[in-house]
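seq as requested:
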Amino acid sequence: MCKGLTTLPATCLKSAKDIKHKIGFLLHKPEFPPDQEHIKEKTNTTKRVSPADVEKWKQSFNNLMNSEAGRTVFTTFLKAEFSQENMEFWKACEEYKTSAPKKMAAKAKQIYDQYIEADSLNEVNLDSATREETRQNLSNAGPFCFDEAQQKIFTLMEKDSYRRFLYSKLIQDLSPLPTTTPLSAMEKRGGKRGCSENSGA
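struct tokens:
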């Protein structure tokens, strides 16, 4: 990426990266057509999901990410948005932390080249400072080499994709009952209280 692009607004850069990822996705066609692949993943995942799990995922992004089934469902959603590289990078960082020390340097370079290097096919959306800090960490690759970059991508997914996920058809199909909003719940309680007061008058 040329240095001149760093002066553009972040929204413009994000749009450009999104377009690049979509083109890359189309060039690497999946074994199944996209619709069939998503249906296949969704069907297999739904069999392992309970209503209680779904309600926990809707309470917080941490609950979703701490659940293996939750991450699988969320990844299916990210694939539909052409942004699954964020989850793949996060998972790669988690696996990297458990690597044998003698293998960390090679794995760190592989993760950097695949997800952080500018213009890589699976490049995640990081600011230049975090990208440079991570590059410098490669010279002494340890368990915390990708901590800053991983946290940035975690926050990006939480504040961006997760919010859309909560209103997506995918999560709605997994929810047994419509979620009651705090406002409607308060109105119901208020209505009942009003009836009892009137009956006692």
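The two ends are 74 Å apart (CA to CA).
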